[in-house]
Amino acid sequence: MRVLVQRVTRATVTVEDRVVGAIGPGFLALVGVTHGDTVGEARKLAAKTARLRVFDDPAGLMNVSLTDAGGEVLAVSQFTLYGDARRGNRPSFTTAAAPEQGESLYEEYVAALREAGVTVATGVFGAHMQVELLNDGPVTILLEA
Fold first, then answer.
1. Rounded distance, CA 13 to CA 75, Å?
2. Per-domain residue ranges for the chain?
3. What stretches of 3-144 show up as alpha helix (H) in DSSP?
4. CA-CA distance, 136 to 144, in Å (whole number)?
5. What fold is seen in the domain 2-144?
6. Are 31 and 96 spatial neighbours (Cβ–Cβ below 8 Å)?
7. Is there a contact between 4 and 81 (Cβ–Cβ < 8 Å)?
8. What is the pLDDT of residues 86-101, one digit of tens each?
9. From 28, 44, 112, 137, which residue has the greatest number of CB atoms within 10 Å?
10. In what helix (H) or strand (E) does residue 19 lie, and over which residues does it extend?
């Protein structure tokens, strides 16, 4: 499982010209699932996301977690995190999980964040989405389980 976390000042996701999720300061979390991923890994990555210390402390050092900063998460499913373009110019997505498994573990990740007290907005699993963000820093971290 992979979660690409981007620190943002704001982010939105739109489906069919309708904003379905929006946040202020926090993380845009792009969530990808592969074969063999488990509920435990989804929960572990959610906990890691909530505790990731990349927000500035009073000295300007990245030392404050998402939860301590009161940040939100916009979680968006992203099977293309498992795209493999090592051979040729068209990526292969064979290492991405089947939609049923991907959706289940994506939902588990979201539920675990909410259980940790994080405000979470989401996209629509499997939909064509437009994601807008203002990356803060920029800070982008790849979390893997």
1. 9
2. 2-144
3. 39-51, 66-69, 99-115
4. 22
5. D-tyrosyl-trna(Tyr) Deacylase; Chain: A; (3.50.80)
6. no
7. yes
8. 999 999 999 999 999 9
9. 28
10. strand 18-23
